[in-house]
Amino acid sequence: MSRRSQIVSGLEQVPLFASCSKRERGIIARHMEVVTVAEGTEVMAEGEAGDAFYTVLEGSVQLARGGRRIGTLGEGESFGELALLDPGPRNATVVATAPTSLGVLGARVFSVLLKELPNMSDKLLRAMAKRLREADAKTVQ
């Protein structure tokens, strides 16, 4: 499977992009940069302003919040999608735990894509509303 195909299929698993068409995910994938980082590289730091979304193509990353490990992500998993919509502070630090290849989509590029694909905006708003509804349901219980 090619890198772009891998990214397109991975985007389908990201709640923000799940309702996008395969064509739209393909366009997003074409605009993603592929970077390789060494084991131990800090990909993003908790508290920093977010400016990109990442998907793990090969390797793995560890997530930590407040200095405590909260999870590990591997091939096909992603993180940082909210930074595409809001440059707020990152809520976790992410460090590569092996040599890792990442697909990266910057917020500026994403903003241009939204202007070029206005129908995608509605799908993304619905996806965010669903996430918010799910989060609200968890806090009410």
Give a topology summary:
Elements: H1 3-11, H2 22-30, E1 33-37, E2 42-44, E3 52-58, E4 60-65, E5 68-74, E6 78-79, E7 93-96, E8 100-106, H3 107-116, H4 118-140
Antiparallel strand pairs: 1-8, 2-7, 3-6, 3-8, 4-5, 4-7
Helix pairs in contact: 1-2, 3-4
Describe this entry's structure for a reader.
The protein is an alpha+beta fold and 141 residues long. It has a single domain, classed as Jelly Rolls, CATH 2.60.120.10. Helix content is 36%, strand content 29%. It has four helices and eight strands. The strands form two sheets. Strands 1-8-3-6 form a four-stranded antiparallel β-sheet. The chain has a four-stranded antiparallel β-sheet with strand order 2-7-4-5, with no helix packed on it. A hairpin with a 2-residue loop joins strand 4 and strand 5 (68-74). Helix 1 (3-11) packs across helix 2 (22-30) and helix 3 (107-116) packs across helix 4. The radius of gyration is 15 Å and the shape is globular. The N and C termini lie far apart (42 Å).
